[in-house]
Design a protein that fits this description.
By secondary structure, the chain is mainly alpha-helical. It has one domain. Helix content is 81%, strand content 0%. Helix 2 (21-32) packs antiparallel against helix 9 (171-197). The longest helix is centred in the C-terminal third of the chain and has 27 residues, at 171-197. The chain is globular and about 50 Å long.
């Protein structure tokens, strides 16, 4: 039981920790306001849970085919490039001003995380491979629980440390972080399109 849970945690951290579009978005939002960073993370986790439920209910046929993955790649890449443009446009906004302006936008940030993760073909492929592994486990429920616990831990603790260190970030540094974030998100979107269509 404990070993299956720990195995699940390792898989969960393996999915959550690497630097990708979601972590960049969480970090960018956590610099402004902690709860917005967490909201993005919860949105991503909800999308993960959506796919987990689809797979557990045996509906993989509808998502694990070339046409659906290609369509999701197009939507995911478009959304990534849209987020890159928004972040780049707001690169010169002062962190304190932005945090005040974004007080009532938790749902919006949750939806950002949900949509970005939902339309990522990599999310589908990850959960398909992970659930194949977990079903071979003697206690698949504990493995899946460990994975979700690790993701939950990451999306609450990581933005906390980012937010607490925001006083070290000057407006000039924040502008540079925003430019780099926008560049990386846009690059992820372009790479996704190139891989799927060329």
């Amino acid at each position: 039981m404990i070993s299956e849970f720990l195995q699940g945690m390792v898989l969960g951290f393996g999915a959550a920790v690497p630097l990708g579009p979601i972590n960049i978005l969480i970090m960018n939002e956590a610099l402004k306001r902690y709860r917005n960073g967490v909201a993005v993370g919860f949105g991503a986790m909800s999308a993960d849970t959506t796919y987990l439920m689809i797979i557990l209910f045996g509906l993989t046929y509808y998502i694990n085919n070339e046409t659906v993955l290609r369509y999701f790649s197009l939507l995911g890449a478009t959304f990534l490039m849209y987020m890159a443009i928004i972040i780049f446009k707001n690169r010169n906004a002062h962190i304190k001003k932005v945090s005040i302006d974004h007080k009532g936008s938790v749902l919006k940030h949750y939806l950002k995380g949900y949509v970005l993760t939902l339309f990522s073909p990599y999310t589908i492929i990850f959960w398909l491979s992970v659930t194949t592994f977990s079903t071979k486990s003697s206690q698949p429920l504990y493995t899946v629980s460990g994975m979700l616990f690790a993701i939950l831990l990451w999306i609450t603790v990581m933005p906390y440390f980012i937010h607490k260190s925001k006083h070290l970030v000057s407006p000039n540094v924040y502008s540079k972080i925003a430019i780099v974030s926008a560049f990386i998100l846009g690059l992820f979107g372009i790479v996704m399109l190139v891989k799927e269509f060329f």
